[in-house]
Amino acid sequence: LFSAVQMAPRDPIFGLNDQFTQDANPNKVNLGVGVYLTDEGKLPLLECVRLAEQAMLESPQARNYLPMDGIAAYDAAVKALVFGAQSDVVTSGRVATVQSLGGTGGLKIGADFLHQLNPGAKALVSNPTWANHNAIFKNAGFEVGSYTYYDAAGRKVDFDGMLADLRAAAPGTVVVLHACCHNPTGYDLTAAQWDRVVDLVREKQLVAFLDMAYQGFGQGIKEDATAIEKFTASGLSFFVSTSFSKSFSLYGERVGAVSVVTQDKSETERVLSQLKITVRTNYSNPPTHGASIVASVLQNTELRALWEKELGEMRIRIQSMRHALVAGLTAAGVTQDMSFITTQAGMFSYSGLSKDQMVRLRSEFGVYGTDSGRMCVAALNTHNVGYVAKAIAAVL
Ligand code: LMR
């Protein structure tokens, strides 16, 4: 049965985790996967999460099947966070939200539904993009292409190139956009650029699918939702996937959602019914624990304030590590201008290092980033940043 099965290629991100675990180098640093670690190099258990779990333990509940679209209070909390509780799309019933297995699950449920709706449509992802975008949309049945996004020489968004590629797309094309903290480049669109993208999506009758996995890690919770606000104000129908892996440090709980903004309540009901079938035929219904935590925190005034504070602290620490890395590179003798590291947003720095340099970083220094040159600066700390800077300086 399995004699012809080929070995699958190693996952470009999680494959590195395996390699990192096996590396005997005592100085090793994992800047591969997008995971936030504290200054002590530990995965944080947020205090808001601990308090919500404590309250759950004090009043334990039996676990029945959840509805296919998940916990109602959670879906309501996601809508309020992503679109604003008082926003017209929410109060008029124009959003269908379904709890999903992380942001990846939200992308997959949305992609499956979109492909059933329009099997001939193509999907376009940014070049470069998160390695899994291509595979998710391909596995959902789409032919996947890309639109220009990054100007490597200018270290910025190639906005003209992006507009030209979107302008050339056929009507119905699904365009996957990073709502904030672009993964891997860390370069986001300005508010004015989002206006132009929204106009083009409308003019060319494209379908926007916004991936928002890092809300709160760029400029702030509200600021990072600029793209969502623009699309919401446009009156267009669009998709948003949400992840709480990073913002609640709940990676292993797989807490996410997909939200579909429709034209009216009747469309929402019909879309929701289809999303539920997609969930049912993939994994039936989602798990309880992580979404219960997130719903409790988002709906409780004190826990919500604590979450915002803790998320703000993570954001600020990442910024300080960006500055420390640039200072460390200068101290290690790097003369080229590396200040771009401090202007990129989110968990990653797109370093511009080649694949060969990234391989050398791994094999000679135990410093792990992806082959594309992406490094998770959220895993730097005051103890390892000097070492990482010296390693980068050595391979530059
Ligand atoms: C990443 O980009 O490293 C994270 O989003 C983790 C993942 O699922 O790839």
Could you tell me the mean pLDDT? 97
Strand content: 5-15%
Unreliable parts:
none
CATH architectural type of the largest domain: 3-Layer(aba) Sandwich
| Secondary structural class | alpha/beta
Explain this structure to me?
With 396 residues, the protein is of the alpha/beta class. It has two domains: 14-45 and 307-395, Aspartate Aminotransferase, domain 1 (Alpha-Beta Complex); 65-299, Aspartate Aminotransferase, domain 2. 45% of the residues lie in helices and 14% in strands. It has helices spanning 14-22, 47-58, 72-83, 88-91, 102-117, 131-139, 159-167, 191-203, 226-234, 265-282, 289-299, 301-331, 340-343, 355-365, 385-395, and strands at 29-30, 95-101, 122-127, 143-148, 150-151, 156-157, 174-178, 207-212, 238-243, 255-261, 348-350, 367-368, 374-376. The protein is globular, with a radius of gyration of 21 Å. The model has no long low-confidence stretch (mean pLDDT 97). (2S)-2-hydroxybutanedioic acid (LMR) binds next to loops.
Describe how the helices and strands are arranged.
Elements: H1 14-22, E1 29-30, H2 47-58, H3 72-83, H4 88-91, E2 95-101, H5 102-117, E3 122-127, H6 131-139, E4 143-148, E5 150-151, E6 156-157, H7 159-167, E7 174-178, H8 191-203, E8 207-212, H9 226-234, E9 238-243, E10 255-261, H10 265-282, H11 289-299, H12 301-331, H13 340-343, E11 348-350, H14 355-365, E12 367-368, E13 374-376, H15 385-395
Parallel strand pairs: 1-12, 3-4, 3-7, 7-8, 8-9
Antiparallel strand pairs: 2-10, 5-6, 9-10, 11-13
The protein binds (2S)-2-hydroxybutanedioic acid (LMR).
